[in-house]
Amino acid sequence: MHRQHKYRKRWSPFIFVPLVLAVVALLAGVVMLLWNATISPLFDLPEIKFWQALALFVLCRLLFGRLGPPPSYRQNPKRRAAWKEKWGNMSEEERANFKARWKERCEKRGEN
Fold first, then answer.
1. Positive or negative: CA dihedral 61, 63, 65, 71
2. d(CA 41, CA 5)
3. Total-model pTM
4. How many CB atoms are located within 10 Å of the residue 2 CB?
């Protein structure tokens, strides 16, 4: 079970929401600048405005990326390092046993 640290800071919505909006606006501005600097002259297309850049950014995120935070294993390098150390300390027999147990678990999930 995951326990939270009792002194962990929580993000206030008064800070978090404006920060997210500022980052999205900054990214839309970057999209607009890059489009107007590269795509417009190359393909003789019209320059785009901020709201069009924002819509293009959201569309690209929906089509090619994902909205939301990265997977949890990328967020916690200490946890990943601990697993690497544990794996390095296992014998070949323990590794084979571990792989077999995980294979069984994955096959059971596929059946459900």
1. positive
2. 53
3. 0.52
4. 3
